[in-house]
Specification:
The chain is an alpha/beta fold and about 290 residues long. Helices cover about 45% and strands about 15% of the residues. The structure holds acetoacetyl-coenzyme A. Acetoacetyl-coenzyme A binds next to helix 2, helix 7 and helix 9.
Amino acid sequence: MLQKGGSPMKKIMVIGAGQMGGGIAQVAAQAGYSVILNDLKEEFVTRGLSVIEKNLRRNVEKGKLEAIESAATLGRITQSTALQDAASADLVIEAAVENMVIKSQLFAQLDEICPEHTILATNTSSLPITEIAAFTKRPDRVIGMHFMNPVPVMKLVEVIRGLATSDEVYKTIETLSQEMGKTPVEVNDAPGFVANRILIPMINEAVYTLYEGIATVEDIDQVMKLGMNHPMGPLALADLIGLDTVLSISEILHEGLGDKYRPCPLLRKYVKAGWYGRKSGRGFYQY
Ligand code: CAA
């Protein structure tokens, strides 16, 4: 059966119920898809689902969503802790940790579990799609689908082609992104793609500015908010993304593109201290 917009899929499994995976599950369910929300432990899935419930409730309170639509959206999401559940999915969107070893194992397993037609997408923010695809026997059906945080709000999806990604798979994901209310942008496989190739060096430079004592955290953010009309300053944004994630993307840019992308030592120090930003209660700001 074809969905509206013509993308031939009904069921989507999202792996990882954290801030990105939860958001992706929400927008997929709101677009009418059956969603399996999967994570390693039941408590992770429950926590992800409670964030989705809170987001939907807020939208109902604001009059932006009918209560009946909110209930229907939640009714389309099922919980899972077994990767085997991917056997019934037409599309898997992986939003697990940014670690190539973990992703390679996941994709090799998914390739065994899923039917031939299933598309395997990754929400990686910077790991090479071509390399992830090489762990499967279906590199033509592997693609990058990079959402922005917070997923329910941000309009962009970078759709990244690996070396072997087929045109048919690209088109399907482009249509699906539109059905989710997003604007897809086609991007080739390169370190950081486009969004993080540009964003992360800006954040890293803000951290260097702090490290060198040029201005305070608040003043650096104020300059970028009032001077450049950014909705939030780079240091507050780093706290939103997660400093561990910012560091891991910086390292990939550094390794792939050279010394000008070297992560600031202060960023490393904060991550070593466990100051990951909002999710740990402390980053450049306290929460
Ligand atoms: N989940 C769902 N909805 C959220 C949300 C969240 N986490 N945070 C905010 N919102 C919603 C609010 O409910 C509000 O909705 P309404 O318009 O319906 O009332 C709307 O977003 C605006 O929120 P606020 O009024 O509370 O605050 P704001 O105007 O300051 O906006 C923001 C918050 C949307 C986060 C805005 O500050 C912003 O756009 N910041 C920049 C975000 C950004 O750059 N994201 C990209 C990060 S990079 C990335 O994700 C890629 C990567 O790989 C690292």
